[in-house]
């Protein structure tokens, strides 16, 4: 990926920078935003820096979601480069329900396709159906559900796994979670 900035009508997707620590802290400290994410809210700028270094610093596809008007991060969007190509996102709650993650997701998908990534997967807690709505809006298809004892929060969660194939293999379904956990298909999603 040559371009470390992606632009849409309303957004700039760019790499996080040193001066973004406070913006990232606003997102990562919010309990409601982090309810369905696999970590506990951070409590300080130091924890935010450590989180960034552990989870985002070396990711090829990790972007701050910024409004074009001020280039200030209000969320993030990522895609892993491992075999899962796991797609993830978070947005400050005052920006929810405006189509921002859907818009950012479509831009990232175009970049992933250009870079030859064959597919993406994403999961969401079934108690967070709006996240599944974002997945469907960007073209992902529900494949199966599975139950996991989720760490580090140590709670039982039913996850719904979605996938979007870019390379024409329409029937490919990522098997890892299916093989690791008892899986099932939910109707009427």
Description of the molecule:
It is a single chain. By secondary structure, this protein is of the alpha+beta class. Helix content is 26%, strand content 30%. It is built from five helices and nine strands, in the order ββααβββαβαββαβ. The protein has helices at residues 21-28, 45-56, 100-114, 129-137, 176-180, and strands spanning 5-7, 11-14, 61-67, 73-79, 87-91, 119-125, 141-150, 155-165, 183-184. It has a five-stranded antiparallel β-sheet, sandwiched between helices. A hairpin with a 5-residue loop joins strand 3 and strand 4 (73-79). The longest helix has 15 residues, at 100-114. The chain is globular and about 45 Å long. The mean pLDDT is 95.
Give a quick set of tags describing it.
four-stranded antiparallel sheet, 26% helix, five-stranded antiparallel sheet, 5 helices, alpha+beta, 189 residues, 9 strands
Lay out the secondary structure.
Elements: E1 5-7, E2 11-14, H1 21-28, H2 45-56, E3 61-67, E4 73-79, E5 87-91, H3 100-114, E6 119-125, H4 129-137, E7 141-150, E8 155-165, H5 176-180, E9 183-184
Large-scale geometry: globular
Q: Structural class from helices and strands?
A: alpha+beta
CA distance, first residue to last residue:
35 Å
pLDDT under 50 segments (min length 5)? none
Task: Note the total helix count.
Answer: 5
**In total, how many beta strands?**
9
Quick structural gist:
The protein is α+β, with helices and mostly antiparallel strands.
């Amino acid at each position: 990926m040559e371009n470390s900035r992606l632009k849409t009508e309303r957004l700039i997707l760019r790499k996080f920078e040193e001066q973004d620590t406070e913006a990232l802290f606003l997102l990562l400290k919010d309990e409601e935003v982090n309810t369905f994410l696999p970590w506990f809210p951070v409590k300080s700028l130091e924890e935010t820096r450590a989180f960034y270094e552990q989870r985002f610093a070396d990711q090829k596809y990790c972007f701050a979601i910024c409004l074009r008007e001020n280039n200030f991060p209000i969320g993030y969007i990522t895609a892993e480069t491992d075999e899962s190509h796991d797609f993830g996102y978070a947005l400050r709650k005052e920006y929810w329900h405006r189509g921002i993650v859907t818009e950012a997701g479509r831009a990232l998908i175009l970049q992933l396709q250009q870079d030859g990534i064959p597919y993406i997967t994403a999961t969401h807690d079934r108690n967070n159906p709006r996240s599944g709505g974002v997945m469907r809006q960007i073209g992902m298809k529900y494949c199966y559900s599975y139950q996991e004892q989720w760490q580090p929060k140590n709670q039982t969660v039913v996850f719904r796994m979605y996938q979007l194939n870019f390379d024409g293999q329409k029937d490919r379904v990522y098997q890892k979670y299916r093989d690791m956990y008892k899986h099932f298909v939910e109707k009427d999603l």
